[in-house]
Design brief:
Helix content is 67%, strand content 6%. The protein is mainly α and 181 residues long. The protein has a single domain, classed as Tetratricopeptide repeat domain (Serine Threonine Protein Phosphatase 5, Tetratricopeptide repeat).
Length: 181
Amino acid sequence: MGTCLALLISSGCASQPKRDPEQSQIRYQLAVGYSHNERVEAAVEELQKAVEADPENADAYNLLGLIALRQGHDYVTQLEGKSCLKGRDAELVRTEAQAKFKEAAKHLHKAVELRPQFPEAWNNLSVAELQLQSWDAAIEAAGMPSRILPTRYPSSRARTWGGPTTRRRTSRARGRSCTRQ
């Protein structure tokens, strides 16, 4: 009995799927191309295969999150745009948008879990959390890039309109220059 148990335990690792980062990266690159060409379904399919080949592919999770964000945004645009949906139709589209934003947040959380020093994924996660009106989570995610890579993403006041640097611009309509601080 003890021998059988030892065999089951040792063979348990063999039954787990083998990671294939190279195949995953190829699938990811295909998905990037599809995404750039607005072939969303094909991109998502390749990303799912990329994650299947390597469940630790943070780039694939980030792109899945970006695609879901874009889809959610498209629903919101439909809701608030020319269609100007009202009543039950508006509620259905709003529900679909929220579902896409939740899906985006799930993928982006996975991306930053896998690679904590992934500023682009943190920024994307911040957008997803804003869309979900999770204000504290959005603020936390938005601040992460400057904490994890302070030299690349400085949080100095100089990067904001209220910072010590000034910009000079000319008002074409008035023909005079003005300074913003």
